[in-house]
């Protein structure tokens, strides 16, 4: 099953999916650009639905303004399935003292949000979102990844990873898969577009993890021209069945419906036609529908 904010869903019913995005997000690093407007979030999902979108996987973890109480209503109004996340981001995204406060019971928090509900709501998380470091795993990243592995063992929930500038994905697999025995098929490696090294991507694909590319965005525009080339290298090598694509909208300015864009709908109005033209309709269907249905299933 796939766990959405409205309950459990058959993977076959997930549909056309944005595999990495945010409707609500509040970070200490993005002051003044918080995603904290319910009306704007609804407008963004409505625009995504109008472009043919049917599901959005939210990667906003514990403590970063998820506003889960808004999600069931948005899902019901738009008909778009929403998946919420538990987990913990890089320490610098949080106010001073927050990480130290939650650290002693991190695995327990993850499990509770997956099994019982997030906060005082009945909304349960559908994945664990955590983060690596820049080209290495620091002590914070290792501790959080270990907590994620413990929560995974008790639930089977998939683990999605933020990679700082797309780096250290190999170190994450060394820890999660090789040392902590999390199946590679339960690991989603994010932001790989930010490190457009096809040789590195092929090495990751051989290890069996899911490969998530996101964007385009102003923050990572320098890597956008490499997206199709990176996808082509993986598809040509036979790994088209491991690819995911998301928008990763993290600021109000980046929304399509109420900001400067490109927004979530860009995935379907612009990138999907390009992928269809380059690789065929069947591959586009795999990236936007079939692969997410497998990657985010418990």
From TrEMBL:
Pfam families membership: PTE (PF02126)
GO MF assignments: hydrolase activity; zinc ion binding
Residues reported in the UniProt entry to bind Zn(2+) 2: 129, 162, 191
Binding sites annotated in the UniProt record for Zn(2+) 1: 20, 22, 129, 248
Cofactor binding, per record: Binds 2 divalent metal cations per subunit.
Cofactors that this protein relies on: a divalent metal cation
Keywords: Hydrolase, Metal-binding
Chain positions with N6-carboxylysine modification: 129
Family: Belongs to the metallo-dependent hydrolases superfamily. Phosphotriesterase family.
Name of the protein in question: Phosphotriesterase
Originating organism: Kribbella antibiotica
């Amino acid at each position: 099953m796939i766990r959405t904010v409205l309950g459990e869903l058959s993977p076959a019913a997930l549909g056309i999916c944005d595999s990495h995005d945010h409707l609500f997000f509040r970070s200490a690093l993005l002051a003044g650009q918080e995603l904290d407007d319910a009306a704007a979030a609804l407008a963004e999902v409505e625009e995504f639905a109008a472009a043919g979108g049917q599901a959005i996987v939210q990667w906003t973890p514990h403590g970063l303004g998820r506003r889960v109480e808004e999600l069931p209503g948005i899902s019901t109004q738009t008909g778009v399935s929403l998946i919420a996340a538990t987990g913990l981001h890089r320490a610098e995204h949080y106010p001073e003292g927050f990480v130290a406060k939650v650290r002693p019971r991190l695995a327990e928090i993850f499990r509770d949000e997956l099994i019982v509900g997030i906060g005082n709501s009945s909304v349960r998380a559908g994945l664990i979102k955590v983060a690596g470091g820049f080209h290495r795993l620091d002590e914070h990243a290792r501790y959080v990844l270990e907590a994620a592995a413990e929560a995974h063992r008790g639930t089977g929930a998939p683990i999605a990873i933020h990679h700082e500038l797309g780096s250290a994905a190999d170190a994450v697999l060394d820890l999660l898969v090789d040392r902590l025995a999390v199946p590679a098929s339960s690991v989603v490696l994010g932001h790989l577009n930010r490190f457009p090294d096809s040789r590195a991507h092929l090495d990751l694909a051989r290890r069996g993890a899911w490969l998530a590319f996101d964007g385009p965005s102003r923050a990572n525009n320098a890597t956008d021209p490499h997206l199709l080339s990176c996808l082509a290298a993986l598809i040509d090598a036979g790994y088209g069945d491991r690819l995911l694509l998301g928008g990763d909208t993290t600021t109000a300015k980046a929304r399509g419906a109420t900001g400067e864009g490109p927004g979530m709908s860009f995935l379907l109005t612009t990138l999907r036609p390009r992928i269809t033209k380059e690789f065929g309709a069947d591959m586009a269907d795999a990236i936007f529908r079939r692969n997410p249905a497998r990657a985010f299933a418990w």
